[in-house]
Amino acid sequence: MRAPAPLAGRTVLVTGAGRGIGEATAKLAAEAGAFVIVTDLDGHRATAEAISNAGGKAEEHTLDVTSAAAWAEVVDRVVRTHGRIHGLANVAGIASDTDNLADQTEQGWDRLITVDLKGPWLGMRALLANFLEAGGGKIVNVASVAGQIGMPDVMAYSAAKGGVIAMSRQVAMQYAKRNIQVNVIAPGVIETPILGDITEELRALVAANTPVGRLGVPADIATMIVHLLGPTSDFITGQVISVDGGMTAQ
Ligand SMILES: NC(=O)c1ccc[n+]([C@@H]2O[C@H](COP(=O)([O-])OP(=O)(O)OC[C@H]3O[C@@H](n4cnc5c(N)ncnc54)[C@H](O)[C@@H]3O)[C@@H](O)[C@H]2O)c1
Question: In angstroms, rounded to a whole number, what is the distance separating the alpha carbons of residues 26 and 218?
Fold first, then answer.
């Protein structure tokens, strides 16, 4: 039986929580009873405000996931106020337009790898001492089906997301006996601003190539992240869970 507030008494930090999947995750975690540390470069204030207005518990912090100093500062402030952090959802990420072997630039490659791969590493590293001291913690890293299968025009993105999957498995093994669970969500194509101005034609093509026949919505992903941040997921670690409408099962 599912507890009515599975995250009650837990403090969880969500990156990229200003919009899209991160925003949905922050809001759902608050509905599940968590105190949510809502972080992003933009939009995080509005998310935290919406949570508070709905009767939830949240505070916002500006956090550039590529900055080790910013991670240290935010984690230090949160730990001083809340004592500990129970869970981390590394959701922030970027994609780029011309992401193929011919057209990707060195600068574009570096940026993608820095935000999408180094970002989650810095986040996990920043929380490690607090998790170890507290006797455990939960980490959910958001990768992509692009880290699992070949797809057009996502070269550096796939490299970063595949890296997140490999890195997460390794960290999961390293800390399994210390009660730190590390899992990865690999979303399919989800309706968020990261898709940019995709044409109706492409949208229809993606839906047709998705067994359930539609694109995902942020709540599809947030539900699984919140489950993995909660107490009923203690026996799940080192896993990649595709939430993709069956795309990778074909
Ligand atoms: N939408 C999809 O189809 C899809 C599919 C697979 C994986 N994903 C992954 O899901 C995650 C969330 O994506 P989304 O679809 O919600 O995209 P989005 O663009 O709506 O949201 C991404 C958020 O990350 C934030 N962000 C970007 N760079 C940052 C940085 N350096 N520091 C802090 N925050 C930063 C942005 O400000 C934004 O609020 C990403 O990791 C993305 O790669 C999305």
Answer: 11
- Report whether pLDDT(4) > 80: no
So which residues are the catalytic ones?
157
CB 39 within 8 A of CB 13: yes
66: amino acid identity, one letter: T
Domains in the chain: ranges and CATH: 11-188+218-243 (3.40.50.720)
> If you measure from the C-alpha of residue 40 to the centroid of ligand 1, how many angstroms do you get, rounded to a whole number?
10
Instruction: Kindly state the tokens that stand for 168.
Output: 């997460």
Alpha-carbon gap, residue 209 to 187, rounded angstroms: 14
226 near 138, Cβ under 8 Å? no
pLDDT the model gives residue 65: 99
**Residue of the CA atom closest to atom 42 of ligand 1:** 93
**Stretch 164-179: mean pLDDT:** 99
Q: How many residues does the chain have?
A: 250
Helices (H), 135-242: 155-175, 200-208, 218-229
19, 37, 21: which is closest to 143 by C-alpha?
21
Q: Which residues line ligand 1 (CB under 6 A)?
A: 15-16, 18-22, 40-43, 63-66, 91-94, 115, 142, 144, 187, 189-190, 192-195
How far apart are the CA of 1 and the centre of ligand 1, in A? 32
